[in-house]
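Lay summary

Proteins are chains of building blocks that fold into shapes. Our project writes down both the chain and a compact code for its shape. Here are two examples, one after the other.
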Amino acid sequence: MITFYWKPTFTKNVKDSVRVKTENRSFYGFYTSPNLDDFWTNGNLFKKVRDAWNENKDENSNARVFLLRPGEEPWKLIDSFEDDQSKIILWYLDAVLYDQPDGSKYDGGFHDYHEIKKLIEKGKDVLLVLQDNDLDNCLTFDYVNTYLMADKVLEQQQNLHLGKSVILRLFENSKSFLRIKHFLSFNGHLKTHRIMLLLFILINELLDKFDISCHSYHWDDDLKEVRNIISRMKLVPTEEWDNQKSDKMMNLTNLHDVEEDIIDRFRNMLPLNLDLKSISHQEAVKMINSTAVNQKLNVPLYFNSYIDVITESNVSDGGVLITEKIFKSLVCLKPFLVVGQYNTLKVLKDYGFKTFSDIIDESYDDEKNWVIRSNIVFREMGRISLLPLEKVDEMYWKIEDILKHNFFHLSKYVSNVDDEVIKKIIGGK
């Protein structure tokens, strides 16, 4: 038997529950058996794992799957199953790996390190399922990687009317037209690297080159803290920045030097909405399937520009998290620049996708310092912004075969990951 546990902050379909009081009141509540169709990612994979377990294991073999977001603590609940010999699967639904300034392993950067270590020392059969890719093999636990929302983006690709052919036909038809913008960039929550991107665009007067959003879906958030956020940024890299950059394209290594009028202009333009309807965030989260906003593909908007500038969820080292932002670009046949984590492109290539070094300087992916890495992306973005659209169009169609490869490879990637996760869970101890 396999049982899934989930704190009922998302699903309303509670079949059964277990009440557990912890030392921290914030984790006082119920763990529930969820409706697996409700999840924004991995929902179909949960069901595949359930079915595979029931088909391949005898009735005396048990597994308990804890579906976790960072900071949630199932340890008291696990301890309450005294003398239980079930396989424990800790399935994390978001990033959990963080960099260590001293270069040490992830005991401090991985919030649950010590608790998991205790379970293993007690003889528990524990498996982690992670969204992050641990490239340095720093984790000492048994784990397997899954994906974040690649499955939902794939569903969008396949469920559009007439299936994949709609996007492909738009792609082929677009050969006859000149697109309007150089770049497309979606930016959600205000984060340091997203603020850097917007300030770079404002300072260098590149806004007309973009279809861009920033902080949309958060229309009623208080923006008074924007200046304070910027004032707390200390972004001077340890190495000297490349002095051969274009005079026009200033880099951002110290946001304290940004002029006050630019800061005010940035603050006053937020939220910078692009395609979402302006309803309050509080209202949106109450709507049925409100989390699906990140799953939707606004296909016509993707075909209005040539290159996507993706600001991933974080820029820290310690793991690589690839989110729906990149998967959407792959499905919509777009090349992209990534303001994200070290070796993000390497991970994509390891998974069989192709990147765009034929038209884009991708050396940023090899830079460990995230400030310098971001500046290399900005410099390349600045270079392309100076090109006429006719030249960018020529660059774009030069990589037509790569774009098509990525479009078709997504389904293979999701299938391969599903098979690997199921194999790891079913074929464990």
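And here is the second example, written the same way.
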Amino acid sequence: MISRGDVRVVREEIERLGGVCRSVTIGVATLQDDMPHEILTCIREALVENGYEVLEDKTEVLIEQIKHSIIETLRLQEGREKPDFTEVLSRTLHRSYRHLSSLFSEHEETTIEQFIILQRIARVKTLLRENDLNLAEIAHRLHYSSPSHLSTQFKSISGITPTSFRQSQ
């Protein structure tokens, strides 16, 4: 997965090794189609050595794009308008939500909805660890209908209450 800060670094590394980038965006580097196998091997090895995961299967790439889009949308919409993931994913990835959802479930053995919940709970944990926000403020920020809804979901996923989690940190 390529983060915003890594786009330039990845492009430079690919070009240093003799590769030609058609595009490098957050999450994806698209290379010229007819590159020699030796150059592709060098690029793959260099990226893996530098901690990047190299996905060549189009389905794997699409799954990673779904995950990245969800995580980025949650981050950008925190404290703002509640995101409509059906619309966001369809618009961002130029495919029907039904197709994306089916593909995701088939390959990840979980649903997009469950992945979103897990990402929201991960963010709740971060906010509990790093901020003095109370549960109502966190619930509002992350678009929960109420602090009790957040607390119930948190406990069902993590096995402890948000208060116990915060106290254990």
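What can we say about the second shape? Residues 6-54 form one domain.
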